[in-house]
Amino acid sequence: MSDKVVITCALNGVLTDPARHPVPYTPEDMAQSTKEAYNAGAAIVHLHLREQGAGRFPSWDTELADQVVDAIKAECPDIIINLTTGVLGDDISGPAGVLAHIEPDMAAMNSGSLNYLKLRSNGEWAWPPLLFDNPVEKVEQFLEVMYEHDIVPECECFDIGILRSLSLYQGNGMLRPPFSVSLIQGVQSGMPARTDLLPILVDEVPDNAPWQSIVIGRNEVWPIHRKTAELGGNLRTGVEDTFYLPDGEKVSGNGELIEQIADIAREVGREPATPDEARQILFE
Question: In whole angstroms, what is the distance from residue 144 CA to residue 123 CA?
Fold first, then answer.
């Protein structure tokens, strides 16, 4: 199905502020936003759980996870659920507990460590510099949970060294198919969002692994999405990644972003995959 493209909606993220941006975090709002993305062509929803006060901080509450997944499945019964596992430190009990409890179809597997930095125009840090720590032992623990519960890993790679580590994980036996690869571009301290760099990254993707671009930013994200579609990759967008359409207009929600990325796919001769087709592409 080389003419098919799997589209993921990055529903909400962890750093995006619901007080300033159209970020859903209640089960009802997450389900409605997922439905809009699904109707526009998304086969996968990648989600973060948020505490239900102001929705500003992450949650690993299994009851909330049930409520979110049930609400999404009521609106989109066949959509593929992809859950984040991103957590700082070596205590993975929160995300591992949610993974084991709800058993999503897929889960993000942060595949290596990164100094996660962002600089403001005045030279000040946007947040205190932090290490997004994902040593090999932590990666292996997450993979063990995923394999125990038949969850397909989505290997998130923030730089080329992390990407190249995937083949080492395979050689060691830690990582085995099926898995997919996400090339994260646009984080200031990670891989830049450059169309000339993308073919080099694709060359480093393990053989036969489906891949997609995750592009963080504003205007620079859209040329990468088009190049990704042209090179045969899958596509992802959503308010976790950007708030802006190609013309610079700020979006009101995820549906508009998925509509735009589906249009790009069609312009290069590819059609959004249904969830069933996406399962064939990613899981078999």
Answer: 41
CA–CA gap between residue 133 and residue 115 (Å, rounded): 8
Q: What mean pLDDT is predicted for residues 230-236?
A: 98
Q: What is the pLDDT of residue 166?
A: 98
What is the spatial distance between Cα 175 and Cα 84, in angstroms, rounded to a whole number?
18
Query: Band of the pLDDT at 2, cuts 50, 70, 90?
Result: confident
Q: The domain 4-283 is classified under which CATH number: 3.20.20.70, 3.40.50.150, 3.30.360.10, 3.20.170.40?
A: 3.20.20.70
Rounded to whole angstroms, how far apart are CA atoms 262 and 266? 6
Closest CA to 145 of 86, 85, 194: 85
Residue 1 has pLDDT above 70, yes or no: no
List residues bridging with 184 in a β-sheet. 214
Q: Bin 126: left if φ > 0, else alpha if -120 < ψ < 50, else beta.
A: alpha
Which range, of 18-22, 132-136, 235-239, averages the lowest pLDDT? 18-22
Q: What is the β-pairing status of strands 130-132 and 114-116?
A: antiparallel
Average pLDDT of the residues of the chain = 97
Residue ranges in the chain assigned as alpha helix (H): 27-40, 62-75, 93-102, 136-148, 160-172, 198-203, 221-230, 254-267, 275-283
Give CA–CA dist 11/152, Å, rounded: 19
Structure tokens at 276: 């069933």
Q: What is the domain partition of the chain in residue ranges?
A: 4-283
Checking if the pLDDT of 16 tops 90, the result is no
